[in-house]
Amino acid sequence: MHTLGRIRAVATAATAALMIVLAIPGPAHAATTITQDSLTPTSASPGISTKATLKVHSTGCTTVQQLGVAVRDLAGRNFDFPDSLSNVTICPSGFTYTSGARSFLAGTYTEFGYYLDSTGYHNLTQETLTVAPPSGTPSNPAQGKTLTFDEEFDQPIAYGTRWIGTTTSAYQYGNHNPNDDKLDWLQQSAVTVANGVATFTAQPSFHILENGKRAWNTGLLTTEGSSQGFQVRTNDYIETRVQMPSGIGAWPALWSWRNGDTEIDKYEYHPDNPNLLELTNHINPSQDYYTNAGAVAPGTWVVIGVLYGANSVDWYVNGAKVFSDNTGVGTSFSAYLVLNLSVDAGEYHPAPPNNTPITSAADYVRVYR
Predict the structure, then answer these.
(1) Beta strands in 118-244 (DSSP E)
(2) Rounded to 5 degrees, what are φ and ψ at 5?
(3) Which residue of 1, 67, 100, 349 could cross-link 344, Cys pair, CB 3.0 to 4.6 Å?
(4) Number of domains comprising the chain
(5) CB–CB of 149/366 below 8 Å?
(6) Is the pLDDT of residue 29 over 80?
(7) How does strand 107-117 pair with strand 120-131?
């Protein structure tokens, strides 16, 4: 009995000694730290696409789930650079990331690198991004020009002398154009004027198009065929203030047209892409899908301007340049104006889901030369 007790006591002591040994902590391992070495650009021109370059290093090689560059305006809205990276290994030797391109409106922004790991998102050092025109650049593209065409919609529409509302050579059949994914059937009565605003109303028609689809009566104004026959030219600046429609199927636009080879889309809009304007040069092909939830949304009024440069067409939204195509219209450009509300037939954007009329509105159209 005593011998067995001693054996148990020795075993118990050995177990305790083992537990003491196992409890001794090993050497401490410091957490890996990621440091932002540099972030550019810190300045940019409004409307000019630019990329961000972020340089980082870490105290030990580590892999993060995401690495990118965030941008916030003064109101805290998100304007991050696109194309963040996934599963990036960062080591003490450093890592350089280049983002996708995007453009900004004029203003002051905060930018910073960020990464995502298993514990969440981590923001790196903040920098100030200043977006402003180059020194000496006129802030107003109409500066030094004379107002040569001015439609304020404060009087009845001058059909015949200034505008035509029933036909355009841009439409295959003059008053309808089903091969361009349009349900349009032009009716002069679809454009009404009140309180300084032209309202375009589209609603189902009894006409049946050549493709068997039911047409929608809708409105279009063009200077083509009018006695004045006004045309925009190279170096003109055109500006309009328009309200974005909310009805699915609406397709408002302001564009130029003559003989099929002079189309510049100042803007096109589809409510299924509620924050996007399509800006297109069809003469020397170029395009930008300008997206800005703070400026473009159903029901909002937006000022859109276009400068028809020989070597670059420049687009402005609410007074800030948002896109320069660097292709231009050439020196001999001239074309008629077209302001209209088309109705999508459903090939590229959804057609109206029901028979509810859809509307868009315009406050003015001005051309400076």
Answers:
(1) 120-131, 147-151, 184-186, 191-194, 197-208, 214-218, 220-222, 231-233, 237-243
(2) -65, -40
(3) 349
(4) 2
(5) yes
(6) no
(7) antiparallel
When mean pLDDT is compared across 48-52, 215-219, 233-237, 285-289, the lowest value belongs to 48-52
Helices marked H in 24-141 — which ranges?
none
Residue 56's nearest CA partner among 125, 147, 149 is 125
Residue span of the structural domain in which 79 resides:
34-131
Q: What's the rounded Cα separation, in Å, for the pair 352 and 321?
A: 33
Backbone angles phi, psi at 304, to 5 degrees: -120, 130
Contact (CB, 8 A) for 295 and 302: yes
Give the C-alpha separation, 108 to 91, whole Å. 33
> Which residue type is seen at 315?
W
Cα–Cα distance for residue pair 175/169, rounded to 1 Å? 9
φ and ψ of 12, to 5 deg:
-65, -40
As a whole number, mean pLDDT of residues 120-139 equals 82
In a domain, 305, yes or no: yes
- Cα separation, 188 vs 340, in Å, equals 11
Q: Are residues 179 and 219 in the same domain?
A: yes
Q: Dihedral angle at the C-alpha atoms of 105, 134, 56, 83, nearest 10 degrees?
A: 40
Is pLDDT of 137 > 90? no
Beta strand 85-90 with 107-117: parallel, antiparallel or unpaired? unpaired
Statement to judge: residues 247 and 315 lie in one domain? yes
CA torsion 203→216→249→298, rounded to 10°? -40
Structure tokens at 323: 């896109």
**End of a domain among 131, 159, 192?**
131
Task: Take residue 94 and report the two structure tokens written for it.
Answer: 């450093």
Do 12 and 101 touch, CB atoms closer than 8 A? Answer: no
Nearest-angstrom CA–CA distance, 252 and 110: 35
pLDDT band at residue 5 using 50, 70 and 90 as cut-offs:
very low
